[in-house]
Amino acid sequence: MKDPMLLAYAKDVLEVSDEDLAKITPAQEQEFKNAFENMMKYKMVAEVTKSKYCAAGLKVGQKIVITGSRIDTEASDCPLCPGLLGGLATKTQVYLDRCSTNGDMTAPMGAIACLDPGLDAGGLGSVSMILRIEPV
Hints:
By secondary structure, the protein is of the alpha+beta class. The chain contains four helices and five strands, in the order αααβββαββ. Helix content is 36%, strand content 23%. It has a five-stranded antiparallel β-sheet. A hairpin with a 2-residue loop joins β2 (63-67) and β3 (70-71). α3 (26-41) packs across α4 (82-101). The longest helix has 20 residues, at 82-101.
């Protein structure tokens, strides 16, 4: 890894070993640099758009904010529901891929839904969230 800022981050924050740093290709370093720069500029927001009988207590308008590669608990006001985490993880990978490849950060992210199908389909609650990428 040649970029001094990235090298310092990899060593000091991520604690990447010298042996593993030597394995990083120029293409991987560029993706890491892209990701680092884009994560400083953009966040992903998942906002509850529908909630009916949610046992976890999610309410319309609540948000989960992903900053970089983590859930920003200070900016989020939404309980974490295990039924939404799989969909949220999948969409987070799309966000991270866009960051590392300099993808279109303004392209729609789609939505996710709770694994509980709702009362009409044999479950109880149902929640939907819309996802978007926003400037930090």
